[in-house]
Amino acid sequence: MNVLITGGAGYIGNELIFQLINNPEIEKIIIYDNLSRRNYNIFIDSKYPKEKVEFIRGELLDTRKLKASLKGIDVVYHLAAKVSTPFASEDSHLFEQINHWGTAELVYAIENSDVSKMIYTSSTAVYGESNEVIDINTTPNPVTFYATSKYRGEEHVKRLLDKIPTYILRCGNVYGYSPSLRFDAVINRFMFDANFIGRIQITGNGNQNRAFIHVDNAVDVLTSLIIRDFPSGIYNLVDKNLSVIEIANVLKEIYPSLEMLYVNQHLMLRELRVKKDDRLNPLITIPDYTLKQELISFKDKFSFGK
Fold first, then answer.
1. What gap in Å lies between CA 20 and CA 28, rounded to an integer?
2. What is the pLDDT of residue 87?
3. Do strands 166-171 and 233-237 pair parallel, antiparallel, or not at all (unpaired)?
4. Which of 100, 181, 195, 268 has the most beta carbons within 10 angstroms of its beta carbon?
5. 79: buried, middle or exposed (CB in 10 Å: 19+, 13-18, 0-12)?
6. Percent of the chain with pLDDT over 90
7. Which residues touch 256 (CB under 8 Å, ≥6 apart)?
8. Global confidence as pTM
9. Quick one: 224 exposed, middle or buried, by C-beta within 10 A (0-12, 13-18, 19+)?
10. What is the pLDDT of residue 282?
11. What would the mean pLDDT of 54-72 be, rounded to a whole number?
12. What is the pairing mode between strands 273-274 and 28-33?
């Protein structure tokens, strides 16, 4: 079996490849990435066997290279995306080009290939905001350029649902240790600031809730999908709903001297709680840990402290 992972040099991709290389049924893993995040950690890690992993530097909108890269590929993981940032609404063009039309280009290439399975990581951001708990039956209502582009990407992937096993996973905010982790994600940023600065900054009153998924749990599901027969469809990949205050209080237990700086404390920011999708339970193979256990493990990965 040969696997291609768009965005394979990124946060989730790094951990996914590490798991997939242990599968004896997988002969080749191809990383298709444009390295836009300038993250090269995956290229200097000795745990990746040279004979099993290959890298292609390419863009999703490069039709010719994309089609050529799919030759001989059995499974595609589509992780590549222009990700959301605190200023995500400032540049709609890149979100639209990469997340929407880049996904459309990939789906078109798959339709004209021998690929037999497609797995797409979307985002719970497609639901927008709500005071109610969201579930898989909730109608999406994206409110940012990032969320809109991911939802439009979903619409293209849906074309494959009746053709090959296809999975759209709406991921919560991903957190947790990886050599290629993103420190702009809220829990990861808080961990860095708590460990090295001794102070975290909370914007708003801190009561806003978000849906989260630990990177290990996300990769566990992604890895299981390649070896299990599972119904095609759209799933919510989340394991926790947490408020910023809850996260901060857990960090305070781990770092007792931690300072909390509030900015615009009078503001109540967007709320999004997403019900855990129990349909994914058969794919989960690793134990369930508390947030505190996860963050203590994260802390142990740091080279030094404040």
1. 10
2. 42
3. parallel
4. 181
5. buried
6. 77
7. none
8. 0.94
9. middle
10. 96
11. 95
12. unpaired
Structure tokens at 221: 């599901």
Mean per-residue pLDDT, 142-167: 95
Question: Cα–Cα distance between 212 and 129 in angstroms, integer?
Answer: 15
Q: Is the pLDDT of residue 88 over 50?
A: no
Q: DSSP string of 57-122? A: E--TT-HHHHHHHTTT--EEEE-------TTGGG-HHHHIIIIIIIHHHHHHHHHTS---EEEEEE
What is the chain's length? 306
Which residues, at least 6 apart from 64, have a Cβ–Cβ distance to it below 8 Å?
Answer: none
Name the token pair of 282: 């058969």
Distance CA 149, CA 94 (A): 9
Rounded to 5°, the CA angle 290-23-288 comes to: 10
Q: For residue 126, which of 106, 99, 163, 104 has the smallest C-alpha distance?
A: 99
Contact 124, 171 (CB under 8 A): yes
